[in-house]
What does this fold into?
Amino acid sequence: MVTFEIVTANADYIEQLGTWADEEGWNPGKSDRHSFFPTDPGGFIFGRLNGEAVASVSAVRYGTDFGFIGFYIARPAVRGQGYGIQLWRAAMARLTGRNVGLDGVIEQQENYRKSGFRKAWNNVRYEGVPAAIGIPDDITLIDARKVSFDQLAAYDRRFFPAERDAFLASWIGLPDRTSLAAVHDGELRGFAAIRPCSGASRVGPLYASSPEVAAALLSGLAATVPGAPVAIDIPDINAPSVRLAEELGLAPSFEAARMYTGPVPEMDLPGMYAVTSLELG
It folds into this structure.
């Protein structure tokens, strides 16, 4: 007898989720689970077939009116058997009444449209070893953990549809990553973080007041992994960010569509040079 059940993930499942995502070629951060799970522990859902985990999805709640779908994976052996869609329905039910975002891979975008999602832009991953760039004379780069957290959280809120303080505190605090802030006369002009992955180290977010500040932040982070490739997920509607990536010698390697069920949230898109993650937004 075949038994399929839908369960909320435990911490062990979250670690397995990173392995699955890596096998899909998504190159998740090695310690991302330590930030993802505490953000909304009830938001990670698994399907078990005869007691074995075979499918996953995340449906993370932010604030009272926003949610984000990610990690929608069915293991190759069970694809096409209807288990994934059962998880999808459970995830969407958990986010009922919210504007829901996701980053959809090309082959799934039509299915997402059928579920009410509409494309806002493409997030294009650029990879490579960036050329070194100087820091503008009026900008100082400092460890972002030395910035007042209230100031950093308020700045992050300009680029994300909801408050996510718990996530942000963990994202910059994990010991395997580096975060930098660009400061001018005590005012934040940019913020970025880098984290190790099984492939290229991923930079995200990358917020900046200008291409020059973005380049300085990216160069500063790349210096922590000298000679090694980095990857950034760039909203293609930010033309200066695309140009910057190309000027620094980075090349596109992956693409996903940022989609929403409701209106595109109001954010500082010109200042968003790279999104934080494709998994939790």
